[in-house]
Amino acid sequence: MAKFTFGGNSSGRSAVGKERVKTSKRRSPQSARWLERQLNDPYVKRAQAEGFRSRAAYKLIELDEKFHFLKGKKAVVDLGIAPGGWAQVVRRRLPSAKVSGIDLLPVDPIEGVTLFEMDFMDDRAPDLLVEALGQVPDLVISDMAANTVGHKQTDHLRTMGLVEAAAHFAVEVLKPGGDFVAKVFAGGTDPELLAILKANFATVKHAKPPASRKGSVEWYVVAQGKKG
Ligand SMILES: C[S@@+](CC[C@H](N)C(=O)[O-])C[C@H]1O[C@@H](n2cnc3c(N)ncnc32)[C@H](O)[C@@H]1O
Q1: In the predicted model, is pLDDT for residue 10 greater than 50?
Q2: 58 within ligand 1 shell (Cβ under 6 A)
Q3: Residues 59, 183, 208, 226: which is the catalytic one?
Q4: Which GO terms describe its molecular function (predicted)?
Q5: How far does the centroid of ligand 1 lie from the alpha carbon of residue 81, in Å?
Q6: Is the link from the previous residue into 83 a cis peptide, with omega within 30 of 0?
């Protein structure tokens, strides 16, 4: 399986003027670490400066710089859309595309995006997402991740269950030639799912964009050219 790396130093990775956060009675060491990481994360700063709701926006931007899956797309489904960084990228790059998205969490409105606050695993979700577009999607993107319980194997299985459902949805609804991009865990896509993707798309690749934290186990699968 081709695993793609991104060349050069990402502009987001410099750490100048690092801010320290002290623990206190109110702040546990974990939350102090989280806050310190947020304050010193150049992608968080960039997202604030550029008006993106999440640093995750840069993962999609970097993946698209490599694979160009946004180009020319007309109808996009965004799975696990909250808080909306990826959808903002899609809207900025494709102002006339139809976009629908779903999340368990509420999402502040995004102009031009139809939002569903529900579980993607709900039987009604696939039809609602496609109906909202009023046309067959040509791109499905999924950044869904299950809430972690701290047990490595359980967390892996739960997120892979979501990826699998997203992949089946993509295979079922995508227009021929369409693309599917989804978050997977380290080790990539499991063999069964990989076989399904390979059978249904012209190319299937894995990549870890620079905006994805080095310590995190997340990778992305990019399946392009849905077969007719
Ligand atoms: C990493 S966040 C997505 C970030 C988003 N791409 C952005 O750019 O703002 C993952 C999201 O997946 C959502 N999610 C997890 N399981 C889901 C499910 N079964 N149905 C819908 N959304 C789900 C979570 O609620 C969470 O908001």
Answers
A1: no
A2: no
A3: 183
A4: rRNA (uridine-2'-O-)-methyltransferase activity
A5: 5
A6: yes
The amino acid sitting at 103 is D
Greatest pairwise CA separation for the chain in angstroms: 60
Question: What is the reported pLDDT for 189?
Answer: 67
Q: What is the CATH superfamily name and number for domain 50-226?
A: Vaccinia Virus protein VP39 (3.40.50.150)
Tokens of 73: 């797309």
Q: Is the CB of 47 within 6 Å of ligand 1?
A: no
- The response to whether residue 90 sits with its C-beta less than 6 Å from ligand 1 reads no
Is residue 64 annotated as involved in ligand binding?
Answer: no
Please give the model's pTM, rounded to 2 decimal places.
0.88
CA 174 to chain CA centroid, Å, is: 17
Round to the nearest angstrom and report the end-to-end CA distance of the chain: 23
The verdict on whether residue 78 carries a ligand-binding annotation is no
Within 10 angstroms of residue 138's Cβ, the number of other Cβ atoms is 22
pLDDT digits (tens, 9 = 90+) for 134-155: 999 999 999 998 888 888 788 7
pLDDT band at 168 (very low <50, low <70, confident <90, very high): very high
Would the pLDDT of 11 be above 50?
A: no
Per-residue pLDDT at 94 exceeds 60: yes
The verdict on the CB of residue 120 being under 6 Å from ligand 1 is yes
Any known ligand binding at 119? Answer: yes
> For residue 80, how far is its CA from the centre of ligand 1 (angstroms)?
3
